Prior knowledge:
The relative contact order is 0.17. Helix 7 packs across helix 8. The chain contains nine helices and 17 strands. The chain has two domains: 4-115, Rossmann fold (3-Layer(aba) Sandwich), CATH 3.40.50.10330; 129-284, Tumour Suppressor Smad4 (Sandwich), CATH 2.60.200.40. It is α+β, with helices and mostly antiparallel strands. The strands form three sheets. Strands 5, 6, 7, 8, 9, 12, 13, 14, 15, 16 and 17 form an eleven-stranded antiparallel sheet that branches. A four-stranded parallel sheet has the order 2-1-3-4, with helices on both faces. The protein has a two-stranded antiparallel ribbon with strand order 10-11. 30% of the residues lie in helices and 37% in strands.
Amino acid sequence: MPANILLTYNPDSGKRRAAQMLEPIVTGLSRAGALVTAVPVGAAPTRELLDTGRYDALVCCGGDGTLHYAVNDALLCAKRVPVGYFPSGSTNDFAATMGLTGRSTDEACAAIAALRTRTLDVGLACGRAFCYIAAFGMFTEVSYQTPQEAKNALGHFAYIAEGARRLNLAQGWRVRVKADGEEFEEEFWYGSVTNTTHIGGMALPDAMNVELDDGMFEMVLIRRPQNVLELQRLVTCLMTQKPDGDLLRVSRVQNAEFCFEDDTPWTLDGEEGPAQRSVRIEVLHRGLELLM
């Protein structure tokens, strides 16, 4: 039986590349034997369509944020379905991690139509699932507060420009961290729990040792430097991608809890999450079937 695929796409992502990719994708999937229903993001309730039981897979075309919502729809529908991804965003961290960026459209369509999957871990935070990152602190608002017009005009450079505009070295977030039995409290510039080799287009420290289905995520914490010497040391750590266990910490965790003094915004896969004073993150081991 041919695969029955629900295809959602974000026509505004990646300089509107998704809209340009739509016809080749639908054609490629159809040639590969799949039946395709294509709907733009937000035009129809995806979860309700999946709950009809008609579809064998949910495939999305857009940026990492589009994938984030597709994964949540796929995991929360009555019948879980695998998820496919055609990356067309400005950064595409998840696609870079999964090696999806170098494939031709025909190659990707053939693999998806055959319903070939790879099992991955996903995270749970703030009442939602996330594919590859949950983060707080400096620069994390850039991904969802950068104007769409700037993304379309400048691509990835728009995030860099917006991040530079928001730079505030005096800002910090005091947080108590509990992770796999360890507990400590510091003032941090940035914190994240990830299942990825890339963040913001850059390779994660120790990326070669990242496993995507081992039930463990990587926790990255950047402590706010207290003086110029510490700032210089942090820059060296970041440039060489060598954590020092103090200013730059990278550890592997199964779960983590972050307790703040005030409600603190989070980003999930580059999308705005709820501001909360306490956030618990858990790993759903091999909770996602990704079409490869």
